[in-house]
Amino acid sequence: MSTPTAVDIPTLLEISPEGGIEGRSRRYEKFLGDMSGVYRDEQAWRDAAAARGADALVYWVDDQRYQEGPGALIVGTSTLLPGRYGEEFAVTRGHLHAVADRAELYYCLSGRGVMLLETVDGQESAIELTPGKAVNVPGHWIHRSVNVGDEPFVTLFSYAADAGQDYALIADAGGMKNLVVADGDGWALKPNPDHAGYRS
Amino acid sequence: MSTPTAVDIPTLLEISPEGGIEGRSRRYEKFLGDMSGVYRDEQAWRDAAAARGADALVYWVDDQRYQEGPGALIVGTSTLLPGRYGEEFAVTRGHLHAVADRAELYYCLSGRGVMLLETVDGQESAIELTPGKAVNVPGHWIHRSVNVGDEPFVTLFSYAADAGQDYALIADAGGMKNLVVADGDGWALKPNPDHAGYRS
After folding, report:
1. How far apart are the first and last CA of chain A?
2. Which of A123, A153, B50, B91 could form a disulfide with A111 if both were Cys (CB 3.0 to 4.6 A apart)?
3. Range 55-74 of B in CB contact (< 8 A) with A
């Protein structure tokens, strides 16, 4: 076997339990104003944006990737701030991988959250994550992080660099099939009446 | 897009900072007697085997994988017990992925170790890992864990399920190019005079 002329040079990554990677390739941030159409209670989202500003940070992601190689992995942290919009807890936009069979590891570093999972043909799951818990999200599962706690929900993730993300699928369906809503001191799943089914 | 008839069902993984996964698919263990030919100081290894027994545990791995899908990931923990064989610190066998371009994430959960990295054409690296530190091992890098501390060195790992492992490459080369040896209270790299170059 031969090594390609150029290989990536391994680098140290220092991962904070609060999220963030020293050695990252990039950081991106999502603000309250970016979350239009994500929550079912549109008025609650508008009220939050009016109170906190459209430029209030809601989640941020650091990731690291190399330049070369079809077998490359992207490694990152996701930090989702706590929040409530009506009865719904704060969520990420969620996605299916553009190459739908690509899996993704999420390992919880801090906080308390739920990995909300659905397939386009109607299968569903929801897995609560606290520090030390993880889910190896199989291919073909749409997934979204939900913060059901009072602190930032932070995960370490890893997925194939060729996976890509389809973010439109959820919006096109009127949202995910299930909402994660407050239920006493905890959370519960509630069917989303606006969900019209995923395109297939 | 359509979902395959059978998709894997996501499961919760509970990962111990001491290594081990509740929800694993399998566990495998390596014993002192399995490490013949790994350490340059053969006599030191023989003495250790005589003193502690060939069935003394030296490292163990839990991993989890699903049944389906070319884009699947394997997630696991590696727990490498501390030890010294002559001047060399305790190591895992080390490998290059059989599909050489496949990357692998290692995230340190506990202990103090080194990820020793080499390419078949002579590039080399060594990255010290303590809790919260990680390395996204790029494709085409032979890699081995080394415990340079006094406690178990535990990492969480993730790699493509189709990657496979070539364990013979290192043995065929007379060992890795570099040894990780004791140096005062720390560690240093030392060229391995038995290393004859990797087949290419």
Report:
1. 41
2. A153
3. 64-66, 68-73
Closest by CA to B39, choosing from B95, B86, B96, is B86
Ranges of residues in chain A with a pLDDT under 70 are 1-5
Q: Which of A5, A105, A133, A167 to mutate to test the interface with B (most CBs of B within 10 A)?
A: A105
Residue type, B153: F
pTM for the model stands at 0.96
Structural domain range at position B165: 14-191
Flag whether A160 is in a domain. Answer: yes
Q: Please tell me the total count of domains within chain B.
A: 1
Whole-angstrom Cα distance, residue B158 to residue A60?
Answer: 22
How much is the ipTM here? Answer: 0.96
Interchain contact A6–B (C-beta under 8 A): no
List pLDDT tens digits, range A132-180.
999 999 999 999 999 999 999 999 999 999 999 999 999 999 999 999 9
